[in-house]
Inverse folding.
């Protein structure tokens, strides 16, 4: 609280440094970074260099891109943000999973919502086999067991082809 | 994973029970179901309108239609709800009311027996509830959620007051019944 009022008085923007797990440092304005609840709490505790051991440089770069764009959010650029979000979720599933786990760790609620909804929409019509591949899950059912689970909700497996693609 | 799966429609979740034993247990878990329900309640796109249609004809029958309440996909998305698979096929049914996506209905299972059913159109599952002591034909029934006991309760009110000097009210607690 004290820091934000003093910075507005002097006109100086308070800067923070984020350090990725690869050791790269990113300097950002505090007003951008406080979208992230985890960092906000650290700032309140007086930190100005914030080490993020669970986030690598590639993921952190994307997250910073998101936070910068969303810090510009106003009533007039809603459409622009919407298009930005659309582009932002276009990466591979593995990249999206990295981002989800970082967004979860950093507590960026808006980003978490965006990513989870996009992944859910992308897997919604996928086949069971495709979902196993995407989430890297090995099938631990015997054929009989799988058949039994399938039979419990047969209708959910019927009605058209499911998407086998992995993107 | 909870965050991703709780955003999927019920049909996809039931299909993904086949992914692995862990997914099956995860999707069937009451905590996940609660999360999913909270999410669905807040999501405009998953709000549905259930329409019961009575066809008057040779086999005057009830049919259910489901349409989305979302303004973007108003009528186009309308689909017939099929309550025959995976549950008892009622010949005729009369819905009493709904609560949290559950529908309470009186259904004629075979030509003579009127049953009180609790139906979940999303999972297409239904359970046969015990009869109220008063004849079902003469009752109106209601379904509600009681937050103090975290339980759904069904109220049956006998309308045939001529035979009974006092209005008969019966309450069935689902927690107790299941």
């Amino acid at each position: 609280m004290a820091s934000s009022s003093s910075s507005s008085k002097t006109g100086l923007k308070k800067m923070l440094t984020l350090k990725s797990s690869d050791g790269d440092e990113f300097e950002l304005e505090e007003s951008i970074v406080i979208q992230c609840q985890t960092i906000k709490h650290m700032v309140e505790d007086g930190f100005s260099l914030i080490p993020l051991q669970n986030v690598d440089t590639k993921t952190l770069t994307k997250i910073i891109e998101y936070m910068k764009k969303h810090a510009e959010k106003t009533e007039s650029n809603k459409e622009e943000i919407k298009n930005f979000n659309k582009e932002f979720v276009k990466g591979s599933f593995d990249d999206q999973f990295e981002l989800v786990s970082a967004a979860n760790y950093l507590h960026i609620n808006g980003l978490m919502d965006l990513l989870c909804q996009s992944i859910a929409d992308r897997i919604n019509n996928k086949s069971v086999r495709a979902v196993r591949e995407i989430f890297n899950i090995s099938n631990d059912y015997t054929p009989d067991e799988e058949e039994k689970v399938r039979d419990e909700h047969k209708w959910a497996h019927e009605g058209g082809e499911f998407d086998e693609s992995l993107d | 994973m909870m965050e991703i799966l709780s955003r999927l429609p019920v049909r996809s979740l039931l299909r993904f029970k086949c992914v692995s034993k862990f997914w099956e247990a995860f999707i069937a878990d009451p905590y996940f179901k609660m999360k999913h329900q909270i999410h669905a309640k807040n999501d405009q796109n998953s709000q549905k309108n259930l329409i019961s249609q009575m066809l008057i004809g040779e086999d005057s029958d009830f049919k259910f239609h489901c349409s989305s309440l979302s303004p973007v996909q108003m009528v186009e998305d309308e689909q017939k709800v099929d309550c025959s698979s995976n549950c008892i096929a009622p010949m005729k049914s009369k819905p009493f009311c709904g609560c949290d996506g559950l529908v309470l209905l009186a259904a004629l299972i075979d030509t003579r027996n009127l049953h009180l059913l609790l139906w979940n159109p999303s999972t297409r599952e239904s359970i046969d509830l015990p009869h109220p002591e008063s004849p079902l034909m003469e009752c109106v029934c209601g379904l509600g959620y009681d937050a103090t006991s975290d339980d759904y309760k069904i109220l049956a009110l006998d309308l045939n007051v001529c035979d009974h000097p006092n209005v008969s009210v019966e309450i069935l607690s689902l927690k107790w019944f299941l």
About this structure: Chain B touches chain A at residues 3-5, 7-9, 11-12, 14-24, 82, 85-86, 123-124 (CB under 8 Å). Helices of chain B lie at 2-5, 10-16, 21-28, 30-42, 174-177.
